[in-house]
Specification:
The chain is an alpha/beta fold. It is built from ten helices and twelve strands. The protein folds into three domains: 96 residues, Cobalt-precorrin-4 Transmethylase, domain 1 (3-Layer(aba) Sandwich); 82 residues, Rossmann fold (3-Layer(aba) Sandwich), CATH 3.40.50; 88 residues, Cobalt-precorrin-4 Transmethylase, domain 1, CATH 3.40.1010. Strand 2, helix 2 and strand 3 form a beta-alpha-beta unit. The radius of gyration is 20 Å and the shape is flat. It binds iron/sulfur cluster.
Length: 277
């Protein structure tokens, strides 16, 4: 069996930066409270929790006088203000690509556009971006139709950073048929585009693709969808313990791709286990 690794793959710039900021702060403070999960990988969260990370669900749950961490996917301006007022220190791990999307949303709403976000309305990044909009905002997920109340309106479109390019392109082309004025910002991050492209190229050359990453990771989910769309047999695992011997049978070339929140140690562990099978 030959193993091929997608290139690039694994930790993206934004998550690598967030983890190193967290680790640096954890070496100084015994406990850090993170507003929501700092990255979408349960195994990495478990490792950081042993070092003193505590994940809380809302700004109200962060104790006064503590050190707080803002996750790579960002938070709403309101949540950021609450923690800034009550904490002795706030480490802002918001990825610069997410900050760009937040600023674009703010600019579009101040220019009078109805802000339309291509993405998943339940995702924390999208909820954070929505918080920057002062006027009307709508979220449209892949495959959904444009609601009637947005037809003929002046809409400013942007994307959740981890969306598939095809989803944004399809949404923009639908708006072209029902609008007289739209403004579009492609806020899909470069790391996401490069990882999606590498999966697409590798999936067409192998007998099976293993996608490694948290089940709560939006960008890992997109990689698995892309691999399935290419038509190759695809196995999505969170860690090497979930490898399936039966799935590996009769496959000579195996491709591996990891989501942008999958740490290097989980990729190494997966390769080691595959080599022993
Ligand atoms: S996937 Fe992109 S936007 Fe999200 S943290 Fe990584 S680099 Fe930043």
């Amino acid at each position: 069996m030959k193993i091929h690794i997608a290139n690039p793959t694994g930790l993206c710039f934004g998550v690598r930066r967030a983890i190193s900021e967290l680790e640096e702060e954890l070496s100084r403070s015994n406990t850090i409270y993170s507003l929501g999960s700092p990255i979408h990988n349960p195994q990495e969260i478990e490792r950081l929790s042993k070092m003193g990370l505590i994940v809380v669900g809302s700004a109200e749950e962060v104790p006064s006088g503590s050190v707080a961490f803002i996750r790579a996917h960002g938070v709403t301006p309101l949540e950021a203000d609450i923690v800034k007022k009550k904490c002795i220190k706030v480490v802002d791990g918001t990825c610069p690509f997410v900050k760009t999307a937040q600023n674009r949303a703010k600019d579009l709403s101040s220019e009078g556009y109805v802000v339309v976000i291509s993405g998943d309305r339940k995702h924390p990044e999208v909820r954070g971006i929505m918080g920057y909009v002062q006027g009307e905002v709508a979220v449209i997920s892949a495959g959904e139709d444009i609601p009637d109340n947005l037809k003929g309106r002046k809409c400013g479109i942007l994307s959740q950073t981890t969306q598939k390019v095809a989803s944004l392109a399809a949404l923009v082309s639908s708006f072209v048929t029902v609008s007289t004025e739209i403004k579009v910002y492609n806020t899909i991050c470069k790391a996401t585009l490069a990882r999606q492209d590498s999966v697409c190229r590798l999936a067409s050359k192998v007998d099976g693709m293993i996608i490694l990453g948290g089940r709560n990771s939006a960008n890992t989910k997109k990689l698995a969808e892309i691999s399935i769309d290419v038509g190759v047999s695809t196995l999505w695992v969170e860690h090497s313990g979930e490898l399936d011997r039966g799935w590996l049978q009769n496959k000579d070339d195996i491709g591996i791709a990891a989501g942008g929140s999958t740490p290097d140690w989980l990729i190494k562990e997966l390769i080691q286990n595959l080599n022993m099978m």
